[in-house]
Amino acid sequence: MFRVTMTLAILLVLCALSVVTARHQARKLFIDLQAEQERARALDIEWGRLQLEQSTWAMHARIEQVARQNLQMAVPEPKQIHILNLMRGVAP
User: Fold this and answer.
1) Sequence spans of domains, the chain
2) At CA 12, angle to CA 9 and CA 15, rounded to 5?
3) Which of 16, 76, 86, 91 could tie 80 with a disulfide, CB 3.0–4.6 Å?
């Protein structure tokens, strides 16, 4: 009888320890999940900022300004523009 009681007591202690360990692990994983969700939110904010920056840099006026100032480019005169007909010689 004493052996059965001791065996059950040991099993009870082991079960209790496994419950405590499982809860601790669950809390730790939940904290890690919250940290990763916060990191994901920060990355989403940074992504939005980068998209805004890219759209600003890619604006037509900005590109034209850089072309004029840094590359000394200018819009050609109409008489300098030549249109090529690339469809010549192609059978319909």
Assistant:
1) 2-74
2) 155
3) 76
Q: How far apart are CA 59 and CA 71, in angstroms?
A: 17
| Confidence (pTM) | 0.55
pLDDT in tens, 15-29: 999 999 999 999 999
Tens-digit pLDDT profile for residues 38-67: 999 999 999 999 999 999 888 888 888 888
In degrees rounded to 5, what are phi and psi of residue 59? -65, 145
Q: Are 37 and 30 contacting, i.e. CB atoms less than 8 angstroms apart? A: no
Residue 2 DSSP symbol: H
What is residue 86's DSSP assignment? T
CB 55 within 8 A of CB 61: no
* Cβ-Cβ contacts under 8 Å for 79 (sequence gap 6 or more): none
